């Protein structure tokens, strides 16, 4: 098998349910996002099992895996060249350039990151020709 990739260490995070409002799927207006149930007769607030889970601290991941991506790397948001300082010493760091950064600065940030041996997640090389 010539084209087999190396298995990277994958971070095992806890599985958690999707925290949706009670009537999702029954009413057209109800969107798939969390809203705290506040009504006095609300079955979700009263913690009826059929109503689904409420978010609580028990679903939190351990400190060792919190904030990590699935491949075990830490994602760092970069807005300028100053944010790249000090990242070359750290292991398992990937860079994500902020959306508000313009094209010129994106190019310089990408060049600087490559120089330091960091991987940039959201930089696409333009095809010439």
Give a quick precis of the structure.
The protein has 129 residues and is low in regular secondary structure. Helices cover 11% and strands 9% of the residues. The two termini are 35 Å apart.
Characterise the protein shown here.
The structure is a single chain. The protein is largely without helices or strands and 129 residues long. Among the domains are: 43 residues, no CATH class; 47 residues, no CATH class. It is built from one helix and three strands. A three-stranded parallel beta sheet has the order 1-2-3, with helices on one face.
β-strand amount: 5-15%
- Helix residue percentage: 10-25%
* Overall 3D form: elongated
Main sheet makeup: 3 strands, parallel
Give the number of DSSP strands: 3
Give the end-to-end Cα distance, rounded to a whole number of Å.
35 Å
- Report the uncertain regions: none
Layout of SSEs?
Blueprint (H helix, E strand, L loop, with lengths): L73 E5 L14 E5 L5 H14 L2 E2 L9
Parallel strand pairs: 1-2, 2-3
Key terms:
129 residues, little secondary structure, 3 strands
């Amino acid at each position: 098998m010539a084209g087999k990739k190396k298995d990277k260490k994958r971070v095992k995070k806890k599985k958690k349910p999707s925290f949706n409002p009670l009537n999702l799927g029954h009413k057209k207006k109800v969107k798939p996002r969390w809203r705290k149930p506040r009504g006095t007769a609300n079955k979700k607030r009263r913690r009826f099992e059929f109503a689904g889970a409420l978010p609580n601290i028990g679903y939190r991941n351990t400190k060792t895996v919190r904030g990590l991506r699935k491949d075990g790397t830490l994602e760092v948001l970069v807005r300028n060249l100053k944010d790249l300082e000090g990242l070359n010493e750290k292991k398992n760091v990937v860079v994500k350039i902020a959306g508000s950064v313009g094209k010129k600065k994106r190019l310089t940030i990408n060049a600087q990151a490559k120089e330091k041996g960091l991987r940039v997640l959201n930089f696409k090389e333009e095809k010439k020709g």
